[in-house]
């Protein structure tokens, strides 16, 4: 089997278990230059994982590649000195990737736990996450939601890579706490009960990762899949769909919900100013237009809009409304750059339909 076909088989496996909320992907051929820049630095400053120098780690890396049907030469791994617990993946195009691990992470995990982290990082490569991270706005709310969804997908690949839920959960418990075996008793149920005690503050909506507890529960549910328990790869789409809805509920409850509410408010604000822009063109806000505005944004917002119009000269209304619409459009586009054009067209269509245009 050729290397290309092997990568294709690995990618097909990863796609079969992709979390349905993880929709942003990009496979492109322009990334070798990125790989070259990273390689130039890591070869000079970091330790490469190899059978000669780090035989245990190299063996585990090969084992993960085997589990994922990925040729071992598609992955180059390096270790750098750092007190931070950190792992990274850089895509070098569609056929290879570079993994980087901090020395603190290596010291913290045993060889089996290392396999979960390796599989997780390779998952980012197989699912097209690395290139997508480069090409999209990292500070948009939409993209942060996507990044959190990507972690759910990659955790599944990591679990396939190590083939043990206990190992995966141990790796997560260690990386979230920074504690070694000496201080931990691996009680998964007690660990997950902490999630149920978490206040619903929504304070994590600016994070690139879901909470570890959400990730662990999502992984626990995934591990109950019949195909995984049989050691197979014929995952049932219907079963995964039901699982994904449970995960979506968890994400919305603890982190994504507040983020989606911010987007919804911005969409509602843009909707108001789009319909307002349509209705002030003739200088008169007639009953039909008022009824349309109330239907779209509610009676309370209509009353605020009428007061807004009464407080400015008639000859300035059009320009003021246009400027408000422009600002609302720019705000929403910053939040959802990828799906903004589709959302804006839908808003325009709703306004036209409501006004009978």
Number of strands: 4
Helix content class: 55-70%
Shape: elongated
End-to-end Cα distance: 59 Å
**Oligomer class:** single chain
Structure overview:
By secondary structure, the protein is mostly helical. It has two domains: 3-235, no CATH class; 260-355, no CATH class. The protein has helices at 3-16, 32-45, 55-67, 103-108, 111-126, 129-135, 141-162, 165-177, 188-196, 212-223, 226-229, 237-279, 287-297, 299-310, 314-335, 340-355; strands spanning 47-48, 75-80, 87-91, 97-102.
Name the descriptors.
single chain, 357 residues, mainly alpha, 4-stranded mixed beta sheet, 16 helices, 66% helix, elongated
Topology summary:
Elements: H1 3-16, H2 32-45, E1 47-48, H3 55-67, E2 75-80, E3 87-91, E4 97-102, H4 103-108, H5 111-126, H6 129-135, H7 141-162, H8 165-177, H9 188-196, H10 212-223, H11 226-229, H12 237-279, H13 287-297, H14 299-310, H15 314-335, H16 340-355
Parallel strand pairs: 2-4
Antiparallel strand pairs: 1-2, 3-4
